[in-house]
Amino acid sequence: MRCKSIVTFIVSCIIFIFAASHRFHDSAHAIGTIKKGGGKARHPALLDSDRNSYVLIATAGVVPPYRGNARVVLEGDPTLKATFHNSGPAVELGIHRHPDFKENTFYDLRPKDKVALWVKIKRDLTVPVRQATTGAETAVPSCSRCDTESGGEETRQPESKTPAPESGKKSYAERGKSRRGGWQGRDTGENSATGPALAFYDTATNERLLSIPIRFTGGTEGGGNAH
Amino acid sequence: MRIDNTTAGFLARKRTMIMIISLLLFMTPLALFFQVTTGDNDFCGTWCPRMFYAIRQGAGIKEVIGGIMRAYMGVALLAGAVISTFFLGRYWCSHVCPIGGAGELGSRLVPARLKIDYSAIPAPAVRYGYLGVYLIAPLAGIGSLCCNYCNFATVPRLFGAAFVEADLAYFFRAYGIINLSLFILLAVVAKGGRAYCNFVCPVGALDALSNRLGVRVGKRVKVIPDKCNSCGNCTEVCPTWAIDVSEKARIDQLSCISCRKCQEICPEGAICYGKTQ
């Protein structure tokens, strides 16, 4: 009996170590902060380039003093189709306030609100993606170094000084195709070189509040944060 | 050894009703418990009882404390479960936990002939292999079992999938499918409905340690050897296969969840809940 327990323990450890170390590449969890002047994404979301559908879970806290409505877009090259689903209670009892999410926009975001967005992404496999190279830029950072509250090592978004794409006038797919390598009317340079990103824009000022870069890997890395 | 017997109380008699009420309180669509307290939707976030002790490689005290502060209600929940178990037995696991309750209640809907009997597998060996990897893998930088294989994330989203598209989206990915499969295989079609709890729940693993360590101090489900006739009825009903009847029935407190099914079924009244004096 003891021998059986020991063998079972060893086999279990092997299985669980494999489960802990192996990552699936069809989903990622990205964490960031929504902040006036540009919030911070903890790290890029890493997805496998060999797949055509993904689920991106984006969670973010609203940093004071930002208050307003935030539009969510999936921007950059290549063209990605996305549907956004807000995580919220099925029956809203109204005891605690939750930001409303309609037509890809969070309404009435207030300081210290927390949002959790589930983004189902579809990609056209015939359109190549720029794969993230291995190295410091794209290696998944240890989250011990990432702390959005302490301002540790993170992917910092440049302050958004150029206007964001105007919403509503063109669909995401149309805007992506209208100018190869960048948004029409907005040459970020950054996104066209580095890939798509999930971005939050203030609806009143078009200021970018948060941008979560999405990177595609060769299939041996992926998943984003190891948690 | 004289055992101070406590007659089967309200908790033991009404366990099924308590589990159902727990599901209504914790699970979508109402999620009353979360909505009334912190405004969360489910266990993910403030109520997470798992993440704050999955400490990553290189994390300093500041990061550890930050994790505890972010999931402060999960810390309180785990502490409450462990402390209450130490003195009273594993009532959190057997009566209150909506995750275990969902599995066990679900398994009651499945015909016995379709269920899988996992009792041949030594549960503590699997459970503490899991807990060991759960704690050490992130520390060693190997990876993590924390969020990707989380029962506290999967089951609430299973309830919510019919109501909330975000919850449905959870299952449109490899981890969602794996976790759903694990829940079905280890809970719904498992004999007793508790193989998931018995094998791969870190909260249950810690609670079981508390149960074992508090044997001399607290109340436990125990066998009165003089009355036991080794009929084996208790073994048949135990959802966590914690009872061995090689000679007289003996309860492994490292696996017993204090559900007291054995006490109900014992024809000789040889099983009781009480304190060892």
Structure description:
The complex is a heterodimer of chains A (227) and B (277). Chain A is α+β, with helices and mostly antiparallel strands and 227 residues long. Chain A has helices at residues 2-21, 172-178, 190-194; strands at 27-34, 40-41, 45-48, 53-62, 68-75, 80-86, 100-102, 105-109, 114-123, 155-156, 197-202, 208-217. Chain A has a six-stranded mixed sheet with strand order 3-12-11-5-8-7, with no helix packed on it. In chain A, strands 1-4-9-6 form a four-stranded mixed sheet, with no helix packed on it. Chain A has a two-stranded antiparallel ribbon with strand order 2-10. In chain A, a hairpin with a 5-residue loop joins strand 11 and strand 12 (208-217). Chain B is mainly alpha-helical. Chain B contains 15 helices and five strands. Chain B has helices at 10-13, 15-26, 32-37, 61-70, 72-88, 91-96, 98-108, 123-140, 151-160, 165-169, 174-188, 195-200, 202-213, 233-237, 261-265; strands spanning 3-6, 219-223, 243-244, 250-251, 271-276. In chain B, strand 3 (243-244) and strand 4 form a beta hairpin. The termini of chain B are close together. Classes of the chains: A alpha+beta (227), B mainly alpha (277). The interface between A and B is large, with 49 and 59 residues.
Question: How are the elements arranged and paired?
Answer:
The complex is a heterodimer of chains A (227) and B (277).
Chain A: H1 2-21, E1 27-34, E2 40-41, E3 45-48, E4 53-62, E5 68-75, E6 80-86, E7 100-102, E8 105-109, E9 114-123, E10 155-156, H2 172-178, H3 190-194, E11 197-202, E12 208-217
Chain B: E1 3-6, H1 10-13, H2 15-26, H3 32-37, H4 61-70, H5 72-88, H6 91-96, H7 98-108, H8 123-140, H9 151-160, H10 165-169, H11 174-188, H12 195-200, H13 202-213, E2 219-223, H14 233-237, E3 243-244, E4 250-251, H15 261-265, E5 271-276
Antiparallel strand pairs in B: 1-5, 2-5, 3-4
Helix pairs in contact in B: 2-7, 4-5, 5-13, 7-11, 9-11
* Structural class by helix and strand composition of chain A: alpha+beta
Number of helices of chain A: 3
- The order of strands across the largest sheet of chain A is 3-12-11-5-8-7
- Rounded radius of gyration of chain A (Å): 19 Å
Largest sheet of chain A: 6 strands, mixed
Tell me which protein chains meet in the greatest interface and how many residues each side has: A-B, 49 and 59 residues
Tell me, briefly, the overall form of chain B: globular
- The residue fraction in helices of chain A comes out at 10-25%
Residues in β-strands, percent of chain B? 5-15%
What is the CA-CA span between the terminal residues of chain A? 35 Å
Order of helices and strands of chain A: HEEEEEEEEEEHHEE
User: Roughly how many Å is the radius of gyration of chain B?
Assistant: 19 Å
